[in-house]
Amino acid sequence: MSTPFYVSPQQAMADRAEYARKGIARGRSLVVLQYADGIVFVGENPSRALHKFSEIYDRIGFAAAGKYNEYENLRIGGVRYADLRGYTYDRDDVTARGLANVYAQTLGTIFSSAAEKPYEVELVVAEVGETPEGDQIYRLPHDGSIVDEHGSVAVGGNAEQISSYLDQRHQDGMSLAEALKLAVQALSRDTNGTQREIPAERLEVAVLDRTRPQQRKFKRIVGRQLGRLLETDGASTEAESSEEE
User: Fold this and answer.
1) SS3 of the chain: helix, strand, coil, percent, to 5
2) 3-state secondary structure of 227
3) Whether 216 contacts 210, CB under 8 Å
4) Which of 94, 109, 214, 233 shows its CA 20 to 30 Å from the CA of 196?
5) Phi/psi at 201 (5° precision)
């Protein structure tokens, strides 16, 4: 009788973590940055239908890198959780921290289960506050841990290099145009340090804008507005954007 093959729990977890990290790294990077009037989501995404960024609730946005079918299931679950909690209690009871806890439990359970493979996803849950001090950004890696981020965060692809670049250049009180340009500069840097050009049509951009009069603060930025933000200075562009709305 042959001896059963044995793998220590530590090695099994390390192998699962390495498997998930490699899957996430194969995807394109995305960044989430705070700016003066809210939070901006920026990523390279040639698809116009398969979004990396989505609205979860009034003031809460969702960003994900990795396998689309896996993070789409998580997004749908988050929307259902938010709708049910807002309907049962109050809309103000739906928070990014509560949603991050739900995602952490789901990802942690899947990661530690030997019956299925870990999810190859990394999530960002962000909530815009009444003031910049009230903004919340949570990063959730594949294992279900929660990281409270401030200022900027990058996930997917070469996230470590992009995060280092953003940490050195991101400043509080940046305009939307300044934050967007910084995000694009960070995403366009290859691992060997060279700079490439990412055309506007390959960018997916969304914001949680605290200045919007509507209860729902999530908005996608596309077309001519995105082009102007990339080309002109922040003050004049934001003035034009407010006039359009």
Assistant:
1) 45, 25, 35
2) helix
3) no
4) 233
5) -70, -15
Q: In what order do the strands lie in the sheet with 136-140?
A: 53-57, 60-66, 121-127, 136-140, 147-149
- Buried b or exposed e, range 84-93, using 16+ CB within 10 angstroms: ebeeeeeeee
Give the CA count within 13 Å in the CB-facing half-sphere of 136: 17
Written as six digits, the tokens of 178 are 């300044």
For 18-115, strand residue ranges (E) read 30-35, 38-44, 53-57, 60-66
For the chain, helix (H) and strand (E) counts, in that order, are: 7, 10
- Write the pLDDT tens digit of every residue in 88-98: 999 999 999 99
Please write the tens of the pLDDT for every residue from 122-164.
999 999 999 999 999 999 999 999 999 999 999 998 899 999 9
| Amino acid of residue 115 | A
